[in-house]
Write a structure and sequence with these properties.
The chain has 256 residues and is of the alpha/beta class. The protein folds into 2 domains: 4-66, no CATH class; 71-248, no CATH class. 28% of the residues lie in helices and 27% in strands. It contains 6 helices and 13 strands. The structure holds pimeloyl-AMP and magnesium ion (MG) (3 copies).
Length: 256
């Protein structure tokens, strides 16, 4: 069996993340040994040229994946065009509700949303208790060990008339890993990169629903919230997010 390595990067400014530094960039890939160098260079470039600023802390590491890598079909994609942030966020709320997140939970999360900005990972929000549950220490969760082999992604992108963008690839990889898990009800995301204003709501039910404007250009506040059904075991869910290796693989015969 071919061996694969998880390659991860994180970069911050002023101090390391755990010392309260500003998050600049993160990234995760899976590479065969002969491609590890290429992965590390790609992640290094991502960190050194980031629009959130020049990092002064950077860490890249790789480690062998022992477990078999599970394959998942990418979530179906749709793009919703909106003109204003207000329209975009209203659409996001409606899509979350259609995905099965209760109205009261959505309102509670949006009331607290400024506390969910500026993290390196995702906030877990429980739809039973209407509370943030990625405690202790309010440590957001970084999803890792996932990738989409380049050629298969390019085929998928061309077929769907979507640009072969790294950003779209990374977001759909993460959204697919997260939302194919039964504990996840839905996800809400927009970037913390000042120039990138398209975000999405994702769920098993609705797939990957892009929304073309969820913030203003120049705004460095981004967020990622996983709405979860908290009756299930939280620690095994977090273990899945951080450790379960996943490859996205699109089957061109399954035309959607
Ligand atoms: N695990 C958990 N949270 C993450 C991860 C991860 N691997 N990567 C990013 N985040 C969180 C973190 O809090 C970031 O601040 C926030 O998400 C935004 O990350 O056009 O580019 O990488 O279809 O800036 C979505 C739309 C783009 C793409 C999202 O997010 C499209 C994006 P960013
Ligand atoms: Mg990213
Ligand atoms: Mg790769
Ligand atoms: Mg970012």
């Amino acid at each position: 069996m071919e061996k694969f390595y998880s390659v991860r990067m994180r970069a911050s400014k002023e101090r390391a993340h755990e010392q309260g530094g500003k998050h600049i960039s993160g990234g995760e890939q899976i590479a065969a040994y002969e491609n590890v160098r290429e992965s590390i260079i790609a992640l290094l470039d991502k960190a050194l040229t980031h629009t959130r600023g020049k990092p002064d802390f950077l860490q890249i590491q790789f480690d062998l994946i022992d477990e078999p890598i599970r394959k998942l079909e990418p979530l179906p994609l749709a793009t919703n065009k909106v003109e204003t942030v207000e329209e975009g966020r209203l659409m996001a709320r409606n899509l979350l509700e259609k995905s099965g997140v209760p109205r009261a939970c959505i309102e509670k999360a949006f009331l607290q949303i400024t506390e969910f900005f500026g993290h390196r990972g995702a906030i877990l929000f429980d739809i039973q208790s209407n509370q943030r549950v990625d405690h202790p220490n309010e440590k957001s969760v970084r999803v890792s060990r996932m990738d989409w082999p380049t050629d298969n992604f390019a085929q998928w992108a061309d077929h769907h008339a979507v640009p072969r963008s790294k950003r779209i690839k990374e977001a759909l990889v993460l959204a697919t890993k997260v939302n194919r898990n039964r504990t996840t009800v839905a996800e809400l995301c927009w970037s913390d990169d000042p120039e990138y204003i398209t975000g999405y709501v994702a769920s098993k039910k609705l797939g990957y629903q892009r929304i073309t404007k969820l913030k203003e250009v120049g705004d460095e506040h981004g967020c990622r919230i996983f709405f979860i059904d908290g009756k299930r075991d939280l620690s095994s869910y977090i273990e899945y997010l951080e450790k379960q290796p996943i490859f996205i693989e699109w089957d061109p015969r399954l035309i959607d």
